[in-house]
Amino acid sequence: MSGQTQPTLPLPEAASPASSPRRRRGWIGWLIAIVIVVGLAIVAWFVAEHITRDILTRTVREQVITQLALPEDQQVDVGFDEPVLPQVIGGRLDRLDVSSDAVPLGDVVADVSVRARDVPIRVDAGDIGSAEATITFGEDQLQTLLAQVEGVPEAGLTLVPPDVRVEADLSLFALTVPLGIDLTPSAVDGDIVLTPAVVRIGGAELTTEGLRDRFGSAADAVLRDYPICIRDRLPAGLTVREVRVERAALVAEVDVDGAIIRDPALQANGTCA
């Protein structure tokens, strides 16, 4: 076959430059750009959230200090559900907690905490959905309150959960009989009421009925309810609902009228009859 012409085989075409890596680099660039934008948006969100939270905390604290005439350096703790930015944009806070210790209430001080839910940002945006407060009186502050109740001695008060223990004298003809009385607290028509539960005399413990059996109507002088009115120390929109004795403290649970945010009459102190 030496004299024959050999068929010419076609040369392979030159490989065209690959374009897929360029496309991949293009997609990667888009992804990086998207990630950067999302990252910046997240950073902006957190910055806005932080600023909103700071402004809200500072505003609430300043309002509490102003409304209650507290010292400028009074510690006021403020709390709310997070994130707070969507709530502010929506015009209402899901939850708002405010608390402070040693808040002046007339001639006594108390630790006060308030929890409100569905709280409008503006006073013209409706009432608070619900709110309640807890007011805690120390033993010495309760002594001051109880001293203003007729027939209760200033000395000898101790808190023995669930009761308030006081010392009293029962006058019987020409004799004075010292008594120890355990008073159980309750809330009646917005007042704190202390009701005799157990009486101790000469080392013996008697029920109130047992004391009446022994001393008749003379026992009525000490076996009576002792009402403590604190309505004149609180805004009229607050009503004592429940009272209990804890270790070294008397605790009052208080309902808060949701209209207090806009009604000056509810913001003013109440009165004692």
TrEMBL record:
Domain of life: Bacteria
Alphabetical UniProt keywords: Membrane, Transmembrane, Transmembrane helix
Segments passing through the bilayer: 27-48
Family matches, as InterPro entries: DUF2993
Annotated spans, Disordered: 1-21
Pfam families: LmeA
Protein name according to UniProt: DUF2993 domain-containing protein
Source lineage: Bacteria, Bacillati, Actinomycetota, Actinomycetes, Micrococcales
